[in-house]
Design goal:
This protein has 175 residues and is mainly α. It has 5 helices and 2 strands; from the N terminus they run ααβααβα. It has a two-stranded antiparallel ribbon. It is elongated, with a radius of gyration of 28 Å. The chain starts with a helix and ends with a helix.
């Protein structure tokens, strides 16, 4: 009887140890999967931010060169207008970076997009204004004939980034 009690105790202890080991293995597998997800999000974030920042950086560079040229030519008004565009683009880039960080949180389930009503014509018009120098440089005539009453609802900063990508690609590939 003592031998059978010892075997039963050993069996119970072994069963408890195996159950504990299985639980720890499951937790470890979950931690590994979470780490992979975080790594994928990190790679997606870096790729996304690199793509999203190319256009505003090019705009800032072009307008900075233009501002310098106007300043050197003594045209302070034009230089100031170019500096305003540069300031606006840096604010937009900062907002974009903050939203990209929020998107990374969203992808991990920790963020909800900010939904708001916005005027689509105004959004496209804003893009046209920020890219007017590119239009002039490439000899492009652009017309915003979107109905002024047309509105959308969504995360306007994210949607502006989508419009920026779409229209910037169109402008860079225009023949």
């Amino acid at each position: 009887t003592q031998l059978s009690e010892s075997i039963n105790t050993l069996s119970d202890t072994l069963d408890t140890a195996l159950t504990d080991l299985n639980e720890k293995n499951a937790k470890l597998l979950k931690d590994i999967e979470n780490e992979r997800t975080i790594d994928n999000l990190r790679q997606t974030f870096i790729s996304g931010i690199s793509h999203e920042l190319k256009t505003p950086i090019a705009i800032i560079q072009g307008y900075a060169e233009g501002a310098k040229m106007f300043y050197e030519a003594g045209n302070g008004k034009a230089a100031a207008e170019y500096c305003d565009v540069i300031a606006d683009e840096t604010v937009r880039m900062n907002n974009m970076i903050m939203r990209l960080l929020e998107i990374t949180k969203y992808s991990s389930g920790a963020y909800e997009p900010v939904r708001e009503d916005f005027n689509i014509r105004n959004m496209i018009g804003e893009w046209y204004e920020k890219n007017s120098a590119v239009f002039e440089e490439k000899g492009i005539t652009a017309v915003n004939d979107i109905n002024p009453d047309l509105t959308g609802n969504g995360d306007s900063i994210i949607l502006f980034s989508v419009i920026n990508n779409y229209l910037s690609n169109a402008v860079s590939h225009i023949g």
